[in-house]
Specification:
Blueprint lengths: L1 H19 L2 H21 L12 H23 L6 H25 L6 H27 L11 H14 L20 H13 L3 H14 L1 H13 L2 H14 L6 H4 L2 H8 L1 H14 L2 H17 L1 H20 L6 H18 L1 H16 L5 E2 L8 H4 L4 H17 L3 H17 L4 H18 L5 H15 L2 H4 L9 E2 L4 H5 L3 H22 L5 H22 L13 H13 L11 H6 L1
Antiparallel strand pairs: 1-2
Length: 587
């Protein structure tokens, strides 16, 4: 009891010192509380949350926190309320008080005895925290020379963050900066950044750079959690974190574009998948509520990434149905309807905005169809630097996982295939007959007739008929490309499934070596298993130091000094000519 009290007092004192130390300290306090606090308070009420695999709980806190903050902005905006800095400060104090009380009760209930499992978890956490720390250091080295976020998306993000902070609401209207009054653009990242900006007093460019790199580094945690959850071992998670944080070119390169919205959206996919699977396994309405909250939050953070998440959820449900007796389907079916209704209800104001704005495009279906250069595959992004090795390792790990009939590998391979097909719908006409043949073969090989067997045979026949020779050539049909999902968005998101597959491959390799390595050489094997990832981490960190594309850096400290001089010595309505026509055209 006294030790818990002393620990809380020390933590509170550290928070107070950080808060009064300046804008940077306040930023760290607010960021930590906002990223994990609301989700922690909600997740601690989940059933059997203590039995979750390692690395999972903090990721659930992260996903739920982001979603809850986004939902708060949506509904307060609908009611005409404004989340000013004063209101946000009060909410922050209430959150910190609730966290202190919750942590107090949770620490008191922790068992005091230690066992071998606790020591293994400690070593696993030590490895992951080492990777996260090195990744954070690398990400901040990458932006050490930047005075402003690089060109492309941050210009628009800065405007939305400014509007959200000034109004205390969702940036549907961009007046007086732009003549836009009903913006149908995902804004979850922007209201979260606006919250931090109001409470920390950092400059907006600095906040965007710091927040973007921290969110980037947090992908090591989310990928580690999903890998350890799927394969129920910490090693796949640690290797997945190593790949995402220190070896893969993506997501490190996101800083060159300022792709902060997609970066934040991809953070929500692992907790969404975990919450959905927990709901299917337990049938708990609390896990169903968490899944609905995460779906609604993801729709506002990045609408395209929402479809990535829904594809993964669909495959999770299908695999669960194939391994579950028919009698258990009924209760989940009712809950699934409730899940859809709850998710739509939570995001109803935002969905209404999207529908009203897209009705204009739907009135002319050609407005939804794209193609050509817009959806062209950028091979430079796919095969950049060490991606050759990562793709090869992911394919090898996928083959090995399928060989040993790993359900988790089937899930990740299926999800990767779904992502590629969503950007290239014409592939579906070739993949659907293959799926139909598999369903038909499975149904024929069953020993007893049942509703599932009849459904599998019927689905197999139907899917076999869905092929380009039967459906397309006689009628002259063509499958168009839909503008929502592009090859570029898919390619720069493949780091997530690739890291999961490589993590699983590392685990299979470790099991194979451990079973065949002589007992007297086991310590040497363990030393090698530690040394190789450490060397890869150091090499990757050094290799990614200069990941920022220099052509996207359009401002230096000298430029900022010149801008300040111009602001002080010229009229507010002065106009300037520039020789770069591209800048004039793009704004």
């Amino acid at each position: 009891m006294k030790q818990v009290l002393r620990l809380l007092v020390v933590v509170c004192c550290c928070l107070a010192v950080a808060w009064i130390s300046g804008a940077t300290g306040r930023f760290l306090v607010v960021l930590s509380a906002a990223l994990f606090g609301p989700g922690y308070l909600l997740e601690r009420w989940m059933p059997a949350n203590q039995s979750l695999p390692i690395f999972v709980r903090p990721v659930l806190w992260l996903g739920l926190s982001l979603s809850l903050i986004v939902l708060l902005y949506q509904w307060t905006t609908l009611m005409g309320l404004r989340l000013s800095s004063t209101v946000l400060t009060g909410l922050l104090l209430l959150l910190l008080l609730a966290l202190v009380i919750a942590v107090w009760f949770d620490l008191r209930q922790q068992p005091r005895t230690r066992n071998a499992l606790d020591h293994r978890r400690l070593w696993a956490w030590s490895g992951l925290l080492g990777i996260i720390t090195l990744t954070l250091w690398t990400r901040f080295v990458q932006i050490a020379h930047l005075i402003l976020p690089p060109w492309v998306d941050p210009v628009h993000h800065a405007l939305l963050i400014r509007v959200a902070a000034e109004t205390g609401q969702v940036p549907y209207s961009l007046l007086p900066y732009l003549q836009v009054t009903n913006l149908a653009y995902h804004w979850g990242y922007h209201v979260f950044a606006a919250t931090l900006w109001q409470l920390s007093a950092l400059s907006l460019p600095q906040l965007m750079l710091w927040l973007g790199q921290i969110l980037n580094a947090l992908h090591t945690l989310t990928c580690a959690a999903l890998a350890s959850y799927l394969w129920r071992r910490p090693l796949p998670g640690i290797i997945a974190a190593l790949v995402v944080g220190l070896i893969s070119f993506m997501p490190a390169y996101y800083v060159s574009w300022g792709r902060y919205t997609q970066l934040t959206g991809l953070l929500l996919i692992p907790p969404l998948a975990i919450a959905c699977h927990q709901w299917l396994q337990s049938g708990s309405w609390r896990w169903l509520l968490s899944t609905a909250v995460l779906c609604a939050g993801l729709s506002m953070v990045h609408f395209r990434v929402l479809f990535f998440g829904l594809a993964l959820l669909f495959l999770i449900v299908v695999l669960w149905l194939l391994s579950t007796p028919l009698a258990a389907w009924r209760s989940r079916l009712i809950q699934a309807v409730a899940l859809g209704a709850l998710g739509l209800g939570l995001a109803f104001p935002w969905i209404t905005v999207i529908v009203l704005e897209r009705l204009v495009a739907m009135s002319d279906p050609k407005g939804l169809v794209g193609g050509g250069r817009f959806n062209a595959l950028n091979e430079g992004l796919l095969w950049v630097q060490q991606n050759y090795w990562l793709v090869a390792l992911a394919l090898l790990a996928a083959f090995c996982g399928l060989w040993v009939r790993s359900r988790a590998t089937v899930l990740v391979v299926g999800w990767t295939t779904a992502l590629v097909v969503m950007a290239n719908l014409w592939l579906a006409w070739y993949l659907l007959p293959m799926a139909g043949a598999a369903c038909l073969l499975w149904g024929v090989l069953q020993n007893h007739w049942s509703l599932v067997r009849v459904g599998a045979i019927g689905a197999g026949v139907l899917l076999l008929l869905l092929n380009p020779w039967v459906m397309l050539n006689p009628m002259g049909w063509n499958i168009p490309y839909i503008w929502l999902i592009t090859n570029e968005i898919v390619v720069i998101s493949l780091f997530l499934p690739f890291s999961l597959l490589i993590g699983s491959g590392a685990w299979l390799l470790w099991c194979w070596l451990q079973a065949r390595w002589p007992q007297r050489w086991q310590p040497l094997l363990l030393a090698g298993a530690i040394t190789v990832p450490v060397l890869l981490a150091l090499w990757g960190s050094w290799n990614l130091r200069t990941v920022v594309n220099q052509s996207t850096i359009l401002a230096t400290p000298a430029d900022m000094a010149a801008i300040d001089w111009v602001a002080q010595h010229t009229a507010a309505d002065a106009r300037f000519l520039h020789q770069r026509n591209t800048l004039v055209c793009r704004g």
